[in-house]
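can u do me a favor
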């Protein structure tokens, strides 16, 4: 079996997605991570149309890639011009990328109606451009844009465009479902026909490039491989124009684990989750929890029957081991939980339920009551651990609230500002402090932090990174209950806590206090006894 070639176009096609942007420096960091993960080709951008892409290729010249070959992307020569005088082809050559990927038109609609070109001239543009770039000692990959739509409209002409590229000298033809409208059955039939037609060209390989407009990008890519395609193009996290490109974070494990393709080794497969999250963070786009293989929820179990089964044998409800792709199993505690969920989660969080089985039932009952009230513990494991400890008499508070007061002031000269005064007890000692903040929760945070810092200096390492407020039932208007979720982090941990109340300040205090209690519980030596 031939080696499956992974071609990443996150840095070019992925950047065409809405709200996706990478600076040239970002692109260099991503390219290094892609290389470390074992990707074979990294497409860096279109130097003929984008100054940022040209800058990336300048930076990439100084990088020694271990696995990947960097590709520059562009179009065939313009109609009516020679290759020697085409600025786009010149920019591709000047990029000094060892691989050049050019696209040409396969669909007669684009040739005649959009480009207002002749069919013969389009064929000449493809053949001459490929030959010209090959004469500059580059590997040339030909992307047949809109190939499947073109083949359905005019199969004879679509085939001639591929033949023109082969006559130019390329040994790699990539069939593109540019509009994302093709079905797997069409992909398999057409790809198979093209491979059969060119089977006399022994060194010719086929690739596939799909978009997700019908939610078929991954399925279509895998189908093309099944039909004989060797190269798969896609982006990390499926970023791309409109509905996105084929998602390599799904394609890679499917090829490696389900189809047993030689595409990536086990060590690099384990880097997939971190690669996905790194690129998500660099793009400043929240990760999609439900994303297959790499999402936070990909191996999350909520139903009690499911949890009971995976405790005996994870294969009962998991198609692969999560560690294979660098992910981990999660058990979610909610109103649908059973005793098995609680036992699994308690072990995971380090809470000893003891030998008394009634502890598990007690926690299940309390969780269901709290979730009925509005709590949601699958998003707040910090608060969940504290509740488990309280219900099993293991919770030892690091501080206790005596009272707090928050004042919000506004006058016509300036916006609102807040001041909080807080009284807490730490062991036998009482602390009273006050602080200002940009809002009432900020003021409470600052005041509590000020009161605790001299006793627990480690809280200086903790920072609030996210604050969410959701109205649980808007039917009650301003009297509705609200759910506050706070995400905090220190040097080694990220943890979430929750509060629910009809009063937004009360709900915020619950979540805020839990975040400090949880942070301090991470170091048992500092518990007040």
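np, heres the sequence
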């Amino acid at each position: 079996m031939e080696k499956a070639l992974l071609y990443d176009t996150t840095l070019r096609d992925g950047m065409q997605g809405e709200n996706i942007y990478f600076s040239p420096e970002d692109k260099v960091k991503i390219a290094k991570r892609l290389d470390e993960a074992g990707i074979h080709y990294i497409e860096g951008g279109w130097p003929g149309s984008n100054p940022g892409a040209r800058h990336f290729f300048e930076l990439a010249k100084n990088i020694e890639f271990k696995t990947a070959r960097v590709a520059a992307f562009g179009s065939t020569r313009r109609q009516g011009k020679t290759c020697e005088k085409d600025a786009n082809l010149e920019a591709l050559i000047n990029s000094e990328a060892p691989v050049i990927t050019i696209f040409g038109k396969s669909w007669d609609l684009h040739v005649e109606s959009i480009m207002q070109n002749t069919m013969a001239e389009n064929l000449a543009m493809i053949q001459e451009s490929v030959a010209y770039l090959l004469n500059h000692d580059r590997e040339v990959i030909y992307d047949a844009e809109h190939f499947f739509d073109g083949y359905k409209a005019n199969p004879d002409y679509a085939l001639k465009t591929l033949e023109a590229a082969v006559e130019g000298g390329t040994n790699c033809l990539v069939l593109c479902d540019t509009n994302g409208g093709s079905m797997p059955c069409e992909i398999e039939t057409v790809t198979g026909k093209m491979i059969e037609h060119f089977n006399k060209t022994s060194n010719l390989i086929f690739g596939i490039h799909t978009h997700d407009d019908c939610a078929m990008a991954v399925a279509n890519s895998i189908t093309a491989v099944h039909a004989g395609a060797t190269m798969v193009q896609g982006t990390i996290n499926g970023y791309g124009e409109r509905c996105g490109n084929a998602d390599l974070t799904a394609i890679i494990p499917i090829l490696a684990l389900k189809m047993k393709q030689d595409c990536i080794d086990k060590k690099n497969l384990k880097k997939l989750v971190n690669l996905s999250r790194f690129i998500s963070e660099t793009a400043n786009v929240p990760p999609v929890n439900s994303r297959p293989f790499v999402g936070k929820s990909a191996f999350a179990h909520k139903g009690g029957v499911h949890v009971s089964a995976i405790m005996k044998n994870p294969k009962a409800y998991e198609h692969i081991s999560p560690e294979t792709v660098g992910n981990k199993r999660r058990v979610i505690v909610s109103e649908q939980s059973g005793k098995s969920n609680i036992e699994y989660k308690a072990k995971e969080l380090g809470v000893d339920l003891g030998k008394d089985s009634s502890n598990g039932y007690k926690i299940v009952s309390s969780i269901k009551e709290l979730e009925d009230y509005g709590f949601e513990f699958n998003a707040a494991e910090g608060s969940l651990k504290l509740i488990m400890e309280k219900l099993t008499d293991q919770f030892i508070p690091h501080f206790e609230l005596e009272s707090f007061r928050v004042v919000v002031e506004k006058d016509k000269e300036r916006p609102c500002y807040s001041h909080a005064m807080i009284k807490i007890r730490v062991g036998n000692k009482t602390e009273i402090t006050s602080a200002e903040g940009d809002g009432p929760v900020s003021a409470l945070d600052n005041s509590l932090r000020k009161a605790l810092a001299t006793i627990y200096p480690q809280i200086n390492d903790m920072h609030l990174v996210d604050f969410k407020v959701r109205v649980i039932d808007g039917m009650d208007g301003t009297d509705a209950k609200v759910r506050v979720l706070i995400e905090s982090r220190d040097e080694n941990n990220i943890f979430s806590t929750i509060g629910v109340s009809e009063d937004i300040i009360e709900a915020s205090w619950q979540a805020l206090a839990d975040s400090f209690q949880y942070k301090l519980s991470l170091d048992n030596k500092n518990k007040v006894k």
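The first strand starts at residue 5 and ends at 8. hope that helps!!
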